What we know:
Elements: E1 4-9, E2 23-27, E3 30-31, H1 44-47, E4 52-57, H2 69-89, H3 92-95, H4 101-117, E5 126-135, E6 146-156, E7 162-173, E8 180-184, E9 187-188, E10 198-201, H5 224-232, H6 248-257, E11 265-280, E12 286-299, E13 322-335, E14 345-356
Amino acid sequence: MRRLPVQLIATTALVVLCITAIAFMMFPWNHTIRIAPADNPAATASQQAPGVRSGGTSSAAAEPAALTKAAAERILASYWQVNNTANESRSDTLLKTVEAGSSYSMDAGTYQMDRVTDPANRQYTAFTAENATYYIPRQPAGVYPRWFVARVTYANLAAPQHATGAGYVLFTQSSKDAAWKNVLEPYLLPAGGPAPFVETDTQGYAVQSSLTSAAGLSAAPAQIPELTAGSLDGATASATVRNPGNLADLRDQVYFQSRLPAGSSDTDRHDTAGSVFALKTVGGGALVFYHLTARLSLASPQGERLKLGIPGYYSSSQALTSATVDYADQFAVYIPAGPAGAAPIVIADTSGITGRG
């Protein structure tokens, strides 16, 4: 679990034909978790759980659930405990036991930077996640990865305790008896509007959306990552996923554009990566979870030397002619049902540096 959404401290940088400093303020999501009574998907008809609404889909002859709600609660509780310890000690090894994919890459990347910017780990802050709602899909027996999503509200435990936002945490199990790990963790965006209600079957389990069917949608869920990458890179498409405006790689690109020497190149390119997960929403839409990779490439004109300071990655004592920085961008995108052209909406995201290119 990471920090609050990343911010740049652009005012700390000084550029005179070189970059002498760039700092990213990372607010660690170091959480001490109390699992609050969660909405039981099997009882949503009477509890009216937020974000879950029964669509009345029959579960006769249905596939088994990916896991039980009780098991999901244990996984979430164990995750917070281990993650909190890993954040406090900034242990990549411990973190890897509960995270994988882009979640692990971003958090390990944050550790690498924070070891330089905050050696004593003074920014460590305890958080808790409350009001968890579980979206557990049915899946064919023996098919992996198995997965589920929890929607949680985060609260800072520093007095007075206060909510800081909400988001999704998606866990997968890669094979039988493998550990369940956090692979996606986008935070809900205030500008994204209210999260859609997830459709459930008669037993309260979340209904998966077909990844390849675009019936009643502007695009099939499996197409959304490619459309997002193209949109962020300036391509046009019939179903455009708009830039949410807070992605670390794009903000860093803008930062460097005004500070590199005239004639420098400053490019940011996105690519698809990893699995796509999708749930049906009430009314016929889909809620899609996925991540992209991004690479920011910087190059000076005619071999001029740059001094680029990115703590943990590039030292300002090094003279460079080019540099590349890799990022991961995670998303939860809502595809509304309706006529062709209804644009997908980014309702949650997060991003961060994962390493040198």
